[in-house]
Amino acid sequence: MSRRTTLLTALGWLALAAALLGLAPALLSDFRLGLLAKYCCYAIAAVGIGLAWGRGGMLVLGQGLYFGLGGYAMAMHLKLTDAGPGQVPDFMVLYAGGEMPVWWEPFRSPVVTLLAILLLPVLVATVLGAAIFKRRVKGAYFAILSQALTAAFAILLIGQVKTTGGFNGLNNFQSFFGYSLYDPVNKRMLYFLAAGVLLASVALMAQLHRSRFGELLVATRDAEERVRFLGHDPANVKLVAYVLAAVLASVGGALFVPVVGIISPEDVGVGASIALVAGVALGGRASLFGPALGALLVGYAETSLSESFPGSWSYFQGGLFVVVVLLLPGGLAQALSALASVRHRVGGPPGGRRRRERPASDRTRPGPTTPQEVTA
Amino acid sequence: MNSRTTRTITAAFSVAALAGALAGCGAKAGESADAAESCVETDGDTVKIGFLNSLSGTMAISETTVFKSLSMAAEEINADGGVLGKQLEIVSEDGQSEPTVFAEKATKLIDQDCVAAVFGGWTSSSRKAMLPVFEGKDALLFYPVQYEGLEASENIFYTGATTNQQIIPALDYLKDEKGIESIFLVGSDYVFPRTANAIIQAYAEEHGIEVLGEEYQPLGSTSFGTVVDKVKAAGADAVFNTLNGDSNVAFFKEYKGKGLTAESMPVVSVSIAEEEVPGVGVDNLVGQYTAWNYYQTLETPVNEEFVAAFKEANGAKAVTSDPMEAAYTSLHLWKGMVEKADSFDVDDVVAAADGVTFEAPEGTVTVNGENHHIAKTALIGQIREDGLIETVWSSDGPIEPDPFLEGYAWWEGE
Question: What is the ipTM of this complex?
Answer without folding.
Answer: 0.84
